[in-house]
């Protein structure tokens, strides 16, 4: 509207880099009035354009010398006689200078308009996105709060998981300490039983000796003893007293060992094996009472010795049964230990999964508490049942000791076992399951991709065959129009000499190497000819038929043909003109030709002339080439003369220096005392240099001259 608006428009164009623009204020536009012809079908373009009053000067400046005509002929007449631009209703423009523009417009030319529309749409999207930003921010805050809450809950669940792990670790340590105590007590019981066995053997020997002496005393009277026998009796009496003393010491030692055994049993009672304490007390009490009875019976009578022997055998059987019971309880302890390890592993896995499944933490916690109660129950029930004790009493003592030692040895063999093997196995199993699932997904994706590729190949193959069939049909039709009675076919050329018509549906396109054309100008099947067997005019007919067949597949808005009928006969040119006339009904055809047969079918003809026939581009190019050739010859002659002059000059200088060299040689021969070898060598070198340089330039001159 004014200078300020023009400056803003120019600034906007430069900022956006929209190109070049010419801005003129409305106040500076000259208002010119034009006289338009008053004829039917003519209307000034200014009257057609609707705009506001303040914009009319600009509209008058741009569209002031143009009118709208109802037909193209009227446009040509107005432009020729009235000297103004005329525009038809179809958009064709006839300039006052005789230039005709219009026809098909490529939408791709209006790139800036499409870019402006895209920018406008993008700005609208940005505006809409900015309006939605507050909602998104509120949603983000809500989600952030929920995520923080989930993190807090996750931390609390992790703390609970750590507590459960600590409790499981404490229980495992208790089980381990109990097993160690049980093993140590088993070894001490074995030692005590061996010592008791030795004492029983010693007691039986003493009782046997006492009984023998009593029998001998009863069979003889003391009055009839000899001196030697009396001495022997005194010795035996002393030995008997010593044996009684040893028996008392053995009983004291047995009591001390019994006290030690009771202490060990009290230690075992404080662990996870309370039942073992009761069993050991029974064994200890039974052993003490029976030992006292056997000591008394050893002094009283031999008859009770046999009964004591049988009772000792029964006790040995009971102790063997007890040892077997202890072994069974060791095995049960090992089983409980394995169960506890499995429970610990499951608890660890559940705690690891708690971070991913936050919604299941409550139920998992309940399950953990139940499992903990179950573990406590199992720990409290580690003691053997009375029925199992009775079963152990029926086994021999030696077998119980052997089985207990074997169980202890087997337990020691498990000290180096990897306790994380089960956990690692489960982790690797989970990874194997995940990898297998991923493999299945990849295989499924590969199968889907292969299926999609097959479908695409099938569609591509079908499209190619369909296109070739259409082109083949169009070619047969066009060739029959160009050559009445003629027949033409397209064949697909394949590798290894295989070929088939377009109707074949063989899978795969990799064996197709091209298209072979066979035509018959007589219409007989035996007279089909290939392209190599045709003349120049016949090849032109086939080529034009193929071009029009392809263009019929996807018609274009216009066609530009340059002397395509130059090599055709008169009959073929007439057929070509008829074919172009039928094509011109749906598309615009522009043809350059010198043949009257083609011009007869044209609805509009234009003649192209040149204002300066002698100044064509070819003539100018030939003249320029001649000038360049002349200049090059002149330069070559100058170079030749220059090389020859330089060569002669250098030869002349070399000759002078050579003469000086000879002069110095003669002078030196006459007066050897004044010989100067340095000057002589310098003159010789300079003479040789100039002579060689002169010969080089002469050689170059000879090459240029030749």
From TrEMBL:
Coiled coil, from the record: 112-188, 418-462
Any GO CC annotation of this UniProt entry: chromosome
Keyword Isomerase among UniProt keywords: no
Transmembrane segments: 642-664, 676-702
Molecular function terms from GO: ATP binding
Keywords: Coiled coil, Membrane, Transmembrane, Transmembrane helix
Recorded topology in the membrane: Multi-pass membrane protein
Biased composition (Basic and acidic residues): 328-347
Compartments (UniProt record): Membrane
RecF/RecN/SMC N-terminal domain ranges (all copies): 292-614
Signal peptide: none
GO BP annotation list: chromosome organization
Segments forming domain SMC hinge: 2-79
Segments of this protein annotated with the region Disordered: 327-354
Superkingdom assignment: Eukaryota
PANTHER family named among the record's database cross-references: STRUCTURAL MAINTENANCE OF CHROMOSOMES PROTEIN 3
Family to which the UniProt record says this protein belongs: Belongs to the OST5 family.
Protein name, entry field: Smc3 protein
The organism's taxonomic lineage, starting at the top: Eukaryota, Sar, Alveolata, Dinophyceae, Suessiales
């Amino acid at each position: 509207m004014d200078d300020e608006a023009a400056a803003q428009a120019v600034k906007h164009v430069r900022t956006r880099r929209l190109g070049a623009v010419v801005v003129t204020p409305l106040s500076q536009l000259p208002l010119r009035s034009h006289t338009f012809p008053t004829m039917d079908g003519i209307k000034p373009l200014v009257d057609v354009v609707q705009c506001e009053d303040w914009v009319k000067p600009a509209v008058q400046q741009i569209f002031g010398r143009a009118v709208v005509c109802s037909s193209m002929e009227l446009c040509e007449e107005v432009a020729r006689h009235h000297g103004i631009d005329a525009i038809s209703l179809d958009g064709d423009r006839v300039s006052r200078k005789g230039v005709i523009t219009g026809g098909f417009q490529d939408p791709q030319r209006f790139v800036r308009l499409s870019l402006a529309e895209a920018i406008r749409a993008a700005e609208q999207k940005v505006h809409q996105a900015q309006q939605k930003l507050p909602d998104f921010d509120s949603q983000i805050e809500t989600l952030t709060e929920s995520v923080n809450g989930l993190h807090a809950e996750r931390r609390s669940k992790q703390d609970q998981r750590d507590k459960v792990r600590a409790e499981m670790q404490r229980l495992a340590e208790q089980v381990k300490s109990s097993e160690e105590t049980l093993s140590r007590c088993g070894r001490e019981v074995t030692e005590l039983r061996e010592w008791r066995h030795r004492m029983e053997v010693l007691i039986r020997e003493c009782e046997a000796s006492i009984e023998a002496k009593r029998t001998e005393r009863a069979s003889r009277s003391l009055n009839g003893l000899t001196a030697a026998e009396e001495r022997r009796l005194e010795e035996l009496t002393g030995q008997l007293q010593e044996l009684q003393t040893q028996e008392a010491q053995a009983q004291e030692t047995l009591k001390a060992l019994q006290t030690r055994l009771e202490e060990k049993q009290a230690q075992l009672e404080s662990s996870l094996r309370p039942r073992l304490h009761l069993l050991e007390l029974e064994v200890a009490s039974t052993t003490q009472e029976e030992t006292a009875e056997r000591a008394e019976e050893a002094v009283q009578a031999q008859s009770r010795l046999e009964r004591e022997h049988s009772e000792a055998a029964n006790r040995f059987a009971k102790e063997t049964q007890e040892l077997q019971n202890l072994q069974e309880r060791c095995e049960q302890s090992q089983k409980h230990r394995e169960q506890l390890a499995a429970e610990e592993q499951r608890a660890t896995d559940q705690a690891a999964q708690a971070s991913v499944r936050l919604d299941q933490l409550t139920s998992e916690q309940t399950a953990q508490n139940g499992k903990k109660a179950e573990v406590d129950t199992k720990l409290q029930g580690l003691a053997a049942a009375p029925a199992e004790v009775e079963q152990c009493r029926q086994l021999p003592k030696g077998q119980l000791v052997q089985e207990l030692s074997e169980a202890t040895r087997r337990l020691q063999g498990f000290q180096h076992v990897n306790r994380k093997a089960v956990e690692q196995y489960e982790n690797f199993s989970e990874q194997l399951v995940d990898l297998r699932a991923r493999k299945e997904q990849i295989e499924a994706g590969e199968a889907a991709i292969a299926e999609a590729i097959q479908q695409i190949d099938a569609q591509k193959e079908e499209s190619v065959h369909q296109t070739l069939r259409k082109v083949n049909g169009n070619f047969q039709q066009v060739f029959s129009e160009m050559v009445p009675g003629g027949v033409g076919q397209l064949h697909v050329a394949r590798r290894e000499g295989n070929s088939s018509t377009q109707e074949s549906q063989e899978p795969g396109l990799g064996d197709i190497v091209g298209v072979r054309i066979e035509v018959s100008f007589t219409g007989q099947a035996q007279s089909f000819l290939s392209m190599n067997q045709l003349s120049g005019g016949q090849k032109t007919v086939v080529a034009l038929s193929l071009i029009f067949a392809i263009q019929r597949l996807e018609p274009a808005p216009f066609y530009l043909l340059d002397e395509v009928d130059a090599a055709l006969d008169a009959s073929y040119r007439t057929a070509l003109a008829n074919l172009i006339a039928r094509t011109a009904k749906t598309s615009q055809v522009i043809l350059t030709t010198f043949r009257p047969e083609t011009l007869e079918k044209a609805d509009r003809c234009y003649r192209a002339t040149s204002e300066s026939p002698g100044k064509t581009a070819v003539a100018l190019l030939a003249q320029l080439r001649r000038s360049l050739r002349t200049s090059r010859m002149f330069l070559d002659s100058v170079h030749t003369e220059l090389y020859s002059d330089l060569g002669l000059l250098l030869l002349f200088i070399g000759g002078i220096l050579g003469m000086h060299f000879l002069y110095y040689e003669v002078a030196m021969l006459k007066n050897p005392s004044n010989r100067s070898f340095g000057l002589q060598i310098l003159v010789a070198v300079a003479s040789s240099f100039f002579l060689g340089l002169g010969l080089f330039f002469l050689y170059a001159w000879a090459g240029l001259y030749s």
